[in-house]
Amino acid sequence: MTTSSSPPLLPPRPAPPSARRSWRGALRQELFATPLDGVISVLLLAALLAAGVGFWHWAFRQAQWAVIQANTTLFAVGRYPLLQQWRLWLLVTLAAATIGASWGLLRSHPRADRSGTLWPINDLVAIAVLAFVAAWLPVALKLPVPLQLRWWAITALLLVLRGVSGQWGQLVPRRLLRFLPLLWPALYLFGMVLIAGGLGVPRVPPSEWGGLLLTLLMASFAILLSFPIGIVVALGRRSTLPLLRWSSVLYIEFIRGAPLITLLFLGQNILGYMLPGGWAPDRVWRAAWVLTFFCGAYLAEAVRAGLAAVPVGQLEAARSLGLSVPQALRHVVLPQALRIALPATVGQFISLLQDTTLLSLIGLLDLLGTARTVMANPEFLGKNAEVYLTLAVLFWCCCAALGLGSRALERRLDPSHSPT
Amino acid sequence: MTASPLMIEARGVQKWYPNGFHALRGVDLSVSRGEVVVIMGPSGSGKSTFIRTFNALEDFQEGTITIDGIALSNDLRNIDAIRCDTGMVFQQFNLFPHLTVLENLTLAPVAVRKRRRAEVEAQALGLLERVGIAEQAGKYPGQLSGGQQQRVAIARSLCMEPRILLFDEPTSALDPEMVGEVLEVMRALAADGMTMVVVTHEMGFAREVAHRVVLMSEGQIVEEAAPTTFFTNPQHERSRQFLAQIL
Predict the structure, then answer these.
(1) Which of B80, B88, B111 sits opposite A331 (nearest CB)?
(2) Which domain holds residue A184?
(3) At residue A340, what are phi and psi to the nearest 5 degrees?
(4) Are residues A259 and A197 in the same domain?
(5) Distance CA B167, CA B171 (A)
(6) Residue A47 phi, psi dihedral angles, 5° rounding
(7) Angstroms from B189 CA to nearest CA on chain A
């Protein structure tokens, strides 16, 4: 096609400065684009600064953190028997080890089409924050020295395992790697046994669980079980079988039509009549099941939106290759639908975590319930601000972890990203 | 061609959509082993619906369809057996975007035929080589061009070792400069003796590769002829109109 007479194609030129983006330029554009913008920006920044200074002054001069320091155990585990608390330490240690190993393995096995860095900037920031909090918090809480050492050792275990499994994770055989995710359900079941007792370990009844332990237990239980419920109900709602479809719709609309607190009270009172004597679960478990079915209904709607977003051609292609409907769902439709539904799903989980505070209204000693007993103690009257701030920070940490994890997962699962 | 057994035999196929539209109005078609049949026709003429009945993506109300000796019925085992033996290539590719190219190919043979992964992977890499994109095996479909995606889709069908390949407008969603590479692969398949039913508007392909051209209109077969006859001396007024419009 090309002849010697055709003009040569232009080579690329380097971009002029105006085409490049610098964060300084962007900031100037955002804050000081016009004189009026500049004035507004300065006023807002001054107000923000004043509020910050005021808060700083309160937090480090006036606030009396003794209310937290004196009640760390209560906030952490409620009235869990002192002699049995080694079980919780064991659980935390195992969890830290599993987290460290999983984290490192994920880093050493980037997606098939990527090279991936072993130590990206996100990881370094996360490690720095974790190390700082773990080093500072036990001291700030004035924990006894042996407990401080224990926390430091657990954090060190997590970080060392992250480093080791990151560096040498490639050596793990591929066949073994496929079974490693099973560590998590195994850890969860084992953790349940450790917390509740059984299998030769003395029983600790749910009425003695409390604080962060109860909050995390309730939230994780509801999250894990509501997920399959949500998927089944979402599939049911899209089914062509009328009975299945209508019962799914009925379930979703019934749950979504009532406030959670109503359902929690209903669960406490009515389950005893609905189930034969002795079958009705303990008060804590009643609340856990209500939370689960509540979250399941909302999740079903998130999953349904994901299912609707998968083109019908995907199912047709899978079926035309000979896959059965369950196979097509498992290998083709659900992985795509759940990825699309992931942000909404995690949003649901985050609000569920916060909804656990309603448990305090039905008399359970979750974090908020524990906090209320502490604030009712004459010794700590008027220390509400300290307690509520601590609670807020604790919840924020849990939610931030969920949010960060989900965004990392989103990036990993997004096939439209070009390889980096 | 006379002694070849029939791979597809459709007799008096009638289909109504749930809204009452009469999509197929008594269609007959026989395809022998190794034969390439091109189906043409204006949009809405029922050609896509027709080939989608061959692997039960569409149901039909009257008539019979027999694929390689197995009658299509509501028996799920029959449908699954036919789908395993009948590959389909779609206009929109319908690759699985969350799986790599290689995983797109190996999914069905491993999940349905229960073959060993290593063995299927070797076969899949061979097929990717054959359609000219072996170096893309580790990428995701979204990272490929349209022509490459459609070639992956063809390789994915071939990985199930089908006896029949159905093509539903395989080049209609492609940029013009990518049509050629897909037709090239289809030509090679035809030369290897694959039984193919192709819904397409590609005149050149029909003329060179097809053994027979079928023109559908309003849910019926209007004309059925060898390509030379069809393109140079169509017998029916409807065929002449159609050819006048697309040439």
Answers:
(1) B111
(2) 81-203
(3) -65, -35
(4) no
(5) 9
(6) -60, -45
(7) 18
